[in-house]
Amino acid sequence: MVKVGKLMSCSKQLCFAYVLQLAAVDKLYKKNIEREEEQQEITYNESDTDDKDTYDTKENNNRIVTTTGHRHLHISRIELIPTYNDLLHKLCVGAWRTFSSKVTKEPYWIAKFPDRIASFDEIPTVTEKYNPRKVPEVAEGWFKKYGHVVKEPMQYGKYNVHLFHFDDFRTVYRSDGDFPIRQSHYVIAQYRQERKNLYDHVGLGPGQGTEWRHLRDIARGKAFALRPSKEKSEDAVDDLVEIIKSNLNDKGEIELLPWLHRWAFESIGIVALNRRLNALAKSNNELADKMVEASALTDEIIALTTMDPTTMYDERYKQLVEAQDFFYSVLRKYIDDIKRDIELEPESDGVAQVLFQSGSCTENDAITLIMDLFHGSLQTVPLTALMAFYHVARHGGIQAEAREEAKQRMPKKDSRYFDGTEPVDYTQSIVYETLRLNPPIIGNGRVIQKDLVLGGYSVPAYTNVLLHFQVACRQEENYKEPLKFIPERADPSRITYVFGGSNRMCLGKAFAMRQLFLVVAKVIRNFEISYDGDEISMINQMHNKPEKPLILRLKPIDE
Ligand code: HEM
């Protein structure tokens, strides 16, 4: 009897555990579905990257690990009968809550505050003046001195709260609600509001509430699949390879970044306008440089005016007006050409073409979104690619392994990446590890809309919090020997935070990753990359960039 009793209770436990698992999976699926539905609109469904390009739910210390790829999501939705699904959900929500409250690990800050939540006033306050270009180092210094949460007084008695722990990032994103608030780009909002004949809305960067939602809904549509033809995007990388070869100096060296910028301009042109923009041609290519310059200046002014809205505001705004007027005038011309062309012959590719032909938004909104796409991509992707090349240049073994993989996919020097089917997992790991160690941005921000407990402190609703992804990625508590470049530990689920979170996550994530995998694989396939200079130091001008030009040596590979 005892044995039967034990057996019964064991099987009951198993059943219970199974139901709980289903409920847990179901719940986690739903969370992911919400994100995925948005992301799927902007993602290709190609096998070569989907496996890594997922939104995993992964609690620390491997407590709960659920990896949810697109394909699994489809299975869950198709296979579960809706009523069963509803019933199961209702039955299990309570059980899941009880269960999860029991298995949830203790908060990371429990040793500091074992029996209470600390007040907002107790958060250590930092008051020093600092160089905004060195913000990652300054923030890391605060973390090391004061811990995972610090507050910085701002104007009008307000505070910015700086966060350095992944668990707090997750808490913030999970509390986001339908209209996440990111406090930045005010200067762009002002510029666009002063030009109501050209802009119906301020855009995705500064937009909030229903205004932001309106544009983001347009961006959920098919036009925003951001799916350039493989052929054209690979042509652009091939052009990059050729232009690198013809611009190596007599020592075989080159400053890659300006060429990577041009490539980024060309690539976003392919997806947004379905046009080649001549940025990688041997002549008449200066326009791309000027556009990149205008976007870099805009970024710097956004960063400076967000951190310090009072100093030299008028001068900075004047510079921004010049840069943005130029940016608009160039894109306007492309758009006018496209409008003329599609009147003669409909075109099915290109964000602009699809938006104009579907009539799904006003012309002003279409141009605003296209400007936001250009702006989002011109710095982030090239800077990440540059840092990936810097790291492989300093790690011969890693480079050799990546080249071996690239050769399997592209056996000949002129083989096409997209014709090959061999996976490029190691190359992808190099990209993820680069995003960990040298992300193009330091992190993200949110104005929280609920009272939250962050790092054991009570933080009131409507506080601006800064999520320091870069600092968190460089700590021993999260990664062993964090300053070493080790692709083998690539960690896509956490690295996803570099793209922000919730339903406001980066619109270009899938596009960015695909571009990065492509360019890293092709350049490594075509060149041996080396670097024997000092370790480079970085500055931040909204994006992290090398303080001085980074010169790499690239030796073309013969076959
Ligand atoms: C490595 C490359 C990139 C990184 C690290 C990155 C990072 C980010 C981050 C952190 C945000 C804020 C998201 C949030 O608030 O949750 C964001 C927003 C955005 N990104 Fe990216 N991004 C990258 C590439 C791109 C590209 C290639 C594009 C365009 C094709 C793009 C377009 C945008 C846009 C339009 C937004 C505003 C989204 C909104 O507020 O609704 N990004 N990005």
From TrEMBL:
| Cofactor(s) needed | heme
The GO terms this record gives for MF are:
heme binding; iron ion binding; monooxygenase activity; oxidoreductase activity, acting on paired donors, with incorporation or reduction of molecular oxygen
- UniProt keyword terms in alphabetical order: Coiled coil, Heme, Iron, Metal-binding, Monooxygenase, Oxidoreductase
User: A single Pfam family, by name?
Assistant: p450
At the top level, the lineage of the source is: Eukaryota
Q: Which residues form a coiled coil?
A: 270-300
**Gene3D superfamilies, alphabetized:** Cytochrome P450
Residue segments, region Disordered: 40-59
Q: Where does heme bind?
A: 506
The record's similarity note reads: Belongs to the cytochrome P450 family.
Task: List the PANTHER family.
Answer: CYTOCHROME P450
Listed name of the protein: Cytochrome P450
Q: Which organism is it from?
A: Larinioides sclopetarius
Q: Read off the lineage from the record.
A: Eukaryota, Metazoa, Ecdysozoa, Arthropoda, Chelicerata
